[in-house]
Amino acid sequence: MKMKACDKYHKKRSPKKVMLDKSFAGIKAGQMLFVGTPHIVADYMSAVPAGGLSNVTKMRNQLARRNKCDAMCPASTAIFLRIVAEYAIEEMAEGKSPSEVTPFWRVIAPDDKVAKKLPIDPQWIADQRKLEETV
Fold it and tell me: Which of 41, 44, 97, 122 would bridge with 80, disulfide CB 3.0–4.6 Å?
């Protein structure tokens, strides 16, 4: 049975810092890599005000700096972005309004790779962003 995003989101994880012994995903050997958690990603998204936007690169850079690292792991961050977004989508399917869930659309753009993997039409993200422009 496939694990629900809710279960993935609530799975016990701890953030960590890793000194790279070899280059990885454009990050050089010897640099400190921050590996966050879905909760850290969700907290970042929730801090973006209604009508405001960020993006995945900006989020990774800011979270890396906040945690005194050179970079944030792009692979785990992509996984965590998807978990957070799918959890919010599950919550909306259960009756919550967009204002009651993590506002993933403020960081994930409709044309981002992760948006195309979500169980919603990327146009929904564009529509939600447009709705918030008037806030």
Answer: 41
